[in-house]
Amino acid sequence: MERPDWNSLSGIIGDLKRATAELPDLHKKMLKVTGTAWSDDRMIKAVVGPRGHLLELDIDPRVFRKPNSKALSAAIVQTVRLAVEDATRQSAEIIDETLPSDLRSGRLADGLDITKLVRSHDADVRLKEDEDDG
Questions:
Q1: Using one digit for the tens of pLDDT, what is the confidence trace for 75-107?
Q2: Domains held by the chain: number
Q3: Does 87 share its domain with 34?
Q4: Residue at 1 is within a domain
């Protein structure tokens, strides 16, 4: 029977203790995250919270001079998506600062890449699901 490497195990336990001790601060930092994005034409501004929920949506009144509901809708969705990506990036940076380096890869059992899942937009996750089913 092979003996465990107690030094490595002790190091891992120490890393986990440090990471869990920082959880209250991590939680506070994560709750303060907001993502902000502007449309290409700077007519739409979206601000989302740490979970990607829309907090603010500013639409410049000039967009109504030449009404195009489909273009406006697409621009809003794209701008909100960019804001979510901004919030997600910030959250990932906060988590990476806290986690031990060997846990930052995001890979779990069966090749599940949790980081990729968390950083993916809902529309992309649904597309991937549809591809896997079909």
A1: 999 999 999 999 999 988 888 887 766 665 554
A2: 2
A3: yes
A4: no
Domain span holding position 68: 6-99
Domain for residue 49, yes or no?
A: yes
pLDDT, one tens digit per residue, over 18-75 is: 777 877 888 888 899 999 999 999 999 999 999 899 999 999 999 999 999 999 999 9
Q: Which is nearest to 119 in space by CA: 83, 80, 84? A: 84
Contact 90/96 with Cβ under 8 angstroms?
Answer: no
pLDDT of residue 109: 47
Both 111 and 95 in a single domain? no
SS3 56: strand
Classify 57 as helix, strand or coil.
strand
Instruction: Locate 27 and state its tokens.
Output: 């939680």
Question: Is residue 113 a contact partner of residue 28, using CB atoms and an 8 Å limit?
Answer: no
